Structures are given as structure tokens and as C-alpha cells.
DNA sequence: TATTGTTATACTCTATAACTATA
DNA sequence: TATAGTTATAGAGTATAACAATA
């Protein structure tokens, strides 16, 4: 591990005595590093795509899960996405403040609140889907169908059985 | 895409009228979703592993890059990791407050500050490496050498050429 | 006793804007 | 004009602790 020129300074691109090109070989063999770098790249593009709608990755995921699982509770969604229930609370508060989701008491368990999309929430989600599809194509277009399937399988293997909340 | 039972409610695990199992099929075909889920899983385990040292993924990456590129500037490190320079500033401030890194003026460009690890920074980084190695093995152990190579190649393809800062 | 929601609190990361010093 | 650092400010996610209502 850590091949490269550890200890030696990276060559600068101009004649200055400061370096510009950063040697990353010490992180090269760390899977988590590459995973985070890929995530950062996707995050940047996602944020750019969602600039007008003002929604984050997490918010969209929550909207999508509520749409597909109408009446789910905060804690169910949170567990699915690996989020804390207090984190979920503030996220839903933000969506509720923007009138995208609503809470209604569960008829069978009065501790629980069911989450539903408002009409506005459904509209913004529909707009999201188009933007996300275009955003996704920028990256999925770099892979063949087979590669993509393998790739997703690898990613699932990383997060499979993660119930660490 | 989106196979599953969209529209139908997921079956509950007990007799209650609320759902517990969340249907995620609407996110199944989104590469970014799986990437984030993998990242979340890794993040949780990393945080647990670093509980005593109190360092985040980003902080460790910065320490490692400074160690390998002694004298690099904040902006060089930031660009490498896809971070904003103001974000980098506060991150370095935190590391400096903990006496893990130090700033010294560049001898050739008085706008720049060179970053170096303190002795304490070198010590904590050494401790980090062991913890991270153990943490990484939990995940890399799920892949063959060939698979891992392919996996990292895929991840690089996602973030290759990302200079969106 | 355990679960769900809730509130309070705090930290990290992120990002924009504006300013200073320097190139 | 552009770059590096800096400061101020704000928003979003994360997490812990504690409490009330309910199971």
C-alpha cells in the first residue's frame, strides 16, 4: 500500500517552490476514500441540478419514499435511510415548513404520525424526477449496462445489513 | 425500472395498520442512491471506529494529505478533496486548535500558508491508520482482489475529471 | 419497559459574499 | 486582474440527551 513517492514532494507545475499537485497515493488503497470522492462528485452535480428547486439528496429521497409508502412514520423512513430519528425530525420539519409534506396522526398507534405528500410536494417531486434523470445520465452514461449492474451490486454489498441506524 | 409493488402498501411485520417495511423500489435504479447508502454505512462504521480519537473522515484525509505533501497550501488540499476554500479554512482551524497541524508562511509566495503536521498530529495520524485499516477490512473483506480493483475503477470513473470544486 | 415523537443543544460540513494582502 | 487567506453568516445533516404520551 502507499506506493508512489511518499516522502518526496510532488513536482510543481510552475517554477514556484510551493507544491500545487497533491500526491494522494497514501489514500489510494482506501476504499472509503474513493467512495467519498465519488459521492462528492455526485453531490456537486446534484446540488447544481437542484439549484432552483432547493432540495437536497436526503430531502428528495425522503419525498420519494413518502410518495411510495404513503402513511409511513418518520422512524420507518429514518431507519431505511440510516438516519437518526432526531435528524429525520428536523428534515421533515423543513419539508413541512415548505408545505411539501404533512403529518397526520396514526389511527391505530397514537404515538405515531403518518407522513403524506401535499399536492405541492407531489408537484415538486415530479419536477425532481426529470432533473435527477438528467443528472444521473451524466454518470451512468460512463458505464455499460453490465458494468452498472455490477457496480450497484458492489455498492449494495457495502451497505447490506447495515442496521447501525 | 421500479419493479416491486409500487402503489401497494408494503406488508407490515405485525398486525398493525401502519407500515414498517419501506418499499425503496422507486430509488432502486438511481446510482446516486446506492452510492449514498454505501457512504452512510461506511460513515457510521468510521465514526464508531474513530470515537475515541474524535476525527472525521475529512479531517483524516486532510491530515494524511498534509503528511504526504508537507507544506501544501489550504487551497491545494481543498481542490484535491473537492472542498470549498472557506470550508477548508474552518476545518484547518479546528485541527490547529487541537494542535494537530500548524500554518507557516510560504517563503516564495506571501499569500500562501504552508501546512505542516505537529508532532501530536503525526502521532494521532499513526493511531488513525491502524483503526482505519481495521475498519476498512470489514468492508474490503467482502470482495475479492479482482472485484476490489474493478470497484475502485468504477468509483474513479464517477469522480474522474470532477473539478467543480 | 420500550417506542415515537418532540425539543434542546452542539458540532461538522457546506457555501456565498466580501475584505485584505499579495501576485 | 487574479489568487490565497480570512471573516462573517447561514443552512443542512448528524448525534446525544431528556421528556411526554402511548404501547
TrEMBL record, chains A, B:
GO BP annotation list: response to stress
Keyword terms of this UniProt record: DNA-binding
Superkingdom of this protein's organism: Bacteria
The HTH marR-type domain, residue ranges: 28-160
Single Gene Ontology MF annotation: DNA-binding transcription factor activity
One Pfam family named in its UniProt record: MarR_2
Stored PANTHER family: HTH-TYPE TRANSCRIPTIONAL REPRESSOR YETL, TRANSCRIPTIONAL REGULATOR, MARR FAMILY
Protein name: DNA-binding transcriptional regulator, MarR family
Organism per entry: Rhizobium lusitanum
